[in-house]
Design goal:
alpha+beta; Ubiquitin Ligase Nedd4, Chain: W; Nucleoside Triphosphate Pyrophosphohydrolase; 2 domains; three-stranded antiparallel β-sheet; 12 strands; 16% helix; 40% strand
């Protein structure tokens, strides 16, 4: 779908070269439509060598077992998003250890997916009954008999067989940068 009107001032848009690429740009102000993007997050919560999985009750992925996750809200810090998604989907409390994987899907809506290794804090996995119809902690052998989504199989391998702490939250950056979510190796 082509953007026809500026979301900043409402004027008409035109196609012109911006930074070497044809983009939709406003005819009146400096607004440039850079593209359509979405950012998803996923939680890799391990308890006693078992991975927290949820079974999707809706499409996309209805009937598949996946790790809990979702999409960030416009003004929500990503580290709050992932904790919220785990709590909402299955009632488990968790905290972030670090970022351990990224998936890049360039499509008409370019999707970036950030996978977080999470510490289990508490709660029994209980499906929300809307997005998720089953939830629990499962070992590798149990997962072999389950309908686990292919991407989730890869993430389980990252979580259970990974050899890195990934990117961790920088709680004390050398320069205060309020409003930034900072992660470092």
């Amino acid at each position: 779908m082509e953007v026809k009107f500026c979301s900043s001032c409402g004027a008409g848009m035109e196609t012109r070269e911006v930074d070497g690429t044809l983009r939709r740009a406003c005819t009146k102000c400096s607004f440039v439509h850079w593209g359509n993007y979405s950012i998803g997050v996923g939680a890799l919560v391990v308890k006693e060598d078992k991975m927290l999985l949820v079974r999707r009750a809706q499409d996309p992925g209805k009937g598949y077992w996946t790790n809990p996750g979702g999409y960030i809200e416009q003004l929500e810090p990503i580290e709050e998003t992932i904790v919220r998604e785990v709590r909402e989907e299955c009632g488990v409390e968790s905290t972030i250890k670090g970022i351990v994987a990224l998936r890049d899907q360039p499509r008409s809506i370019h999707n970036l997916y950030v996978a977080f290794e999470m510490d289990y804090v508490g709660g029994e996995p209980t499906p929300d009954g809307v997005e998720v119809d089953a939830a629990g902690f499962f070992g590798m052998e149990e997962m072999e008999a389950m309908n686990v989504a292919p991407f989730t199989k890869w993430l389980v391998d990252v979580a259970l067989r990974g050899k890195s702490d990934g990117l961790t939250v920088d709680g004390n950056p050398i320069v205060p940068l309020n409003g930034y979510g900072l992660f470092r190796a």
